[in-house]
Amino acid sequence: MNWLKNLFREDREFGASRSSGWSDFRRTYIKDKCEVCETRYFLELHHVIPFWVSPELELFPSNVVTLCRKHHFEWGHLFSFRSYNIDINGWIIKIKQRP
Question: How far apart are CA 47 and CA 94, in angstroms?
């Protein structure tokens, strides 16, 4: 898996150019509420594996979750945009199944 190999590269660049299909992809796959808190405001489409790590995963529906701006930073990036949470989907499942 390229994303795993790229995760440990010391020369990786943060930030990357978006695909020309990003706007249409985002419009199609963003949900109407945050998958953590269910707010309907300030929604962003978060990449589980960031596209600067694996550009080939940028437009894969299974690689994105809808988060509000706050939870995008906190849950998606663990309080640093240089980091990311590869287990965000597991946490979303736990949130939805909590008593």
Answer: 19
What are the mean pLDDT values of the chain's consecutive 10-residue runs (99 residues total)? 48 66 94 96 94 90 96 93 91 90
Q: What are the backbone angles phi and psi of residue 50, rounded to the nearest 5°? A: -55, 150
List, in sequence order, every beta strand (DSSP E) within the chain.
Answer: 43-47, 64-68
Q: What is the pLDDT of residue 14?
A: 57
**83 to 29, 57, 58: CA distances (angstroms):** 23, 17, 17
Residue 46 contacts by C-beta under 8 Å, 6 or more apart in sequence?
64, 65, 66, 67, 72, 76, 88
Q: 10 Å Cβ neighbour count for 95? A: 13
Task: List residues bridging with 43 in a β-sheet.
Answer: 68
